[in-house]
Amino acid sequence: MASWRVYLFLVLANLFWSGNYVVGHLLAGGISPLQLTAIRWAIAAPLLIVLAVLLEKPAWRSALREWPMHVLQAALGLVAFCLFSYQALAHTTALNAALVGATNPVLIAIVAALLVRERLRGSSILGLVTSLLGVLLVLTHGNILEVFTTEYNVGGLYMLGAVIVWTAYTILGRTLTTTPVTSAALQSVIAAVALVPLSLALGGPVTLDSAGWWGVLYIGIFPSVLSLMLWNISVRKIGAARAGIYLNLMPVFTALMALAIGTPITLIQILGGALVITGVWLTSRPARRTAQVLVA
User: Fold this and answer.
1) What's the helix, strand, coil split of the chain in %, to 5?
2) Number of Cα atoms under 13 Å in the Cβ half of residue 173
3) Residue in 203, 166, 188, 201 with CA at minimum distance from that of residue 88
4) pLDDT at residue 295, as a whole number
5) pTM for this one?
6) Cα 134 to Cα 128: distance, rounded to the nearest angstrom
7) Rounded distance between C-alpha atoms, residue 224 and residue 227, angstroms
8) Tens digits of per-residue pLDDT, 237-292?
9) Read out DSSP for 89-101?
10) Which residues have CB under 8 Å from 271's CB, separation 6+?
11) Which of 4, 1, 24 is nearest to 12 (CA)?
12) Is the pLDDT confidence value at 46 over 90?
C-alpha cells in the first residue's frame, strides 16, 4: 500500500473521530447518553462483523474463548467511555472535550511504562506535566492559580473520566490474542445486547428531528466503524508509535468544525490546546537510540 494512502487513512480516522465530538454535542439535548451509546453500537455491530469476516477471516471459537476479557473491554471502552464522553458533551463544548481527550496518548504511555516497569524518560515526564497544565487551564476556565477554589468545568471532568477509562481499555487490550477488528466486532455486539434493552427500559423520550437522526447514523458508521477500520490498517502498516502522533489532529479538526458551525474559540482554549499537543508530542517522541535504528 502506498505510504500516502496510509497517512490519508490516519487523517480520515481522526477527522471522523473529531466529528463524534461535534455531532455528539449537537445531539445532547435530544437524546440521552445511554440511548445514543446503545444506538451507536447497534448500528456498528453488524457492520463490524462483516468487516471482521472480510479483513481478518476470524476463528470465532478461539476469539470466544476470551469472552470474559471481551465483556470487560466492552464495559470499559464501548460503554463507559461513550457514556462519559456524551455526558461531557452535554455539559461542555466539543472543543473542550477534545482538548481534554487529547491527553489520552500521554496517560497511556505513562501507565504502560509504569506497568512494565520501564524507566520514564525526562521528556515523558515533562510531556505529562505540560499536558496536565493544559487540561487544568481548560477545566478551570483559565483560573489555574485558584485550582482548589474555582468552579470546575463539569463536562471537562466527565471527559477526564473518559480518558481514564480509555487508558484502561487500551492497556488491557494488549493482553488479547483476538485480532483487532474481530475484537471490536465481538465487543460491539456485547455492548448492543446489554444496552439496547436497558435504554428501552430507562431512556426517556427522544426528541431528535430528521437532521438529528442523520447525526446518530453518522456516529454509528463513521467514528464507530470507519475510523476503527482505517486506524487498524494504518497501525499494521506503520506501527502504533508513528500512527499515534496523528491523534494530535483531533483537537485541530474539532476546533475547525466548531468554527464552521459558529462556535467561538477562546484564548484559554487555544493556550490549553497548545500545551496539551506539546505534551503529547514530548511523550510520544521516540528515544534517540530507537529513532536511529528506525532511520537505519
Assistant:
1) 80, 0, 20
2) 20
3) 166
4) 34
5) 0.80
6) 10
7) 6
8) 776 656 666 777 788 888 888 888 887 777 887 888 788 778 767 766 655 544 33
9) HTTS-HHHHHHHH
10) 134, 137
11) 4
12) yes
Cα-Cα-Cα-Cα dihedral sign, residues 170, 175, 176, 179? positive
Amino acid, single-letter form, for residue 165: V
Burial 236-246 (b: 16+ CB within 10 A, else e): ebbeeebbbeb
Place of cell 514530548: 282
144 CB-side CA count, 13 A: 11
Q: Using CA atoms, how far apart are residues 199 and 213, in angstroms rounded to an integer?
A: 17
Question: What is the structure's pLDDT at 100?
Answer: 81
Alpha helices in 57-179 (DSSP H): 60-64, 67-73, 81-89, 94-101, 104-115, 122-139, 154-173
pLDDT at residue number 152 = 59
Cell 466492552 belongs to: 74
Asked if 142 and 83 touch (Cβ cutoff 8 Å), the reply is no
How far lies 100's CA from each of 21, 52, 250, in Å? 12, 31, 11
Q: How far is CA 14 from the centre of its chain?
A: 9
Reference 253, options 214, 227, 215; nearest CA is 227
The type of residue at 148 is: F
Cell numbers for 76: 470499559
